[in-house]
Design goal:
Blueprint lengths: L1 E3 L5 E3 L6 H14 L16 E5 L14 E5 H7 L5
Antiparallel strand pairs: 1-2, 3-4
């Protein structure tokens, strides 16, 4: 369903994963690789890593497993929405 945002522009509702779905994705990504998707260094642990959208939601990315990677909290925070 499309709605209008604060600026009156139409927006498309995107699939939003539940916390449980994100936890399962995080576990699968951890099993596949224990490295940060941004800097490539070893992650300190599953609980201390974050899920990062490869293409940010604000730039057209989707909340899907294919668009998610594990990252250090600091790397993810620095990256923000600057991804091209």
């Amino acid at each position: 369903m499309n709605q209008k945002n604060e600026m009156g522009k139409a927006r498309v509702d995107k699939l939003i994963l539940t916390k449980t779905q994100k936890r399962h994705i995080k576990q699968r990504l951890w099993a596949a690789s224990k490295k940060c998707g941004i800097c490539g260094k070893q992650l300190p642990g599953l609980k201390r890593s974050t899920l990062d959208h490869t293409l940010p939601l604000g730039k057209g990315g989707e909340d899907t497993e294919e668009n998610l990677q594990l990252a250090h909290w600091k790397c993810n925070n620095i990256k923000g929405d600057d991804h091209e």
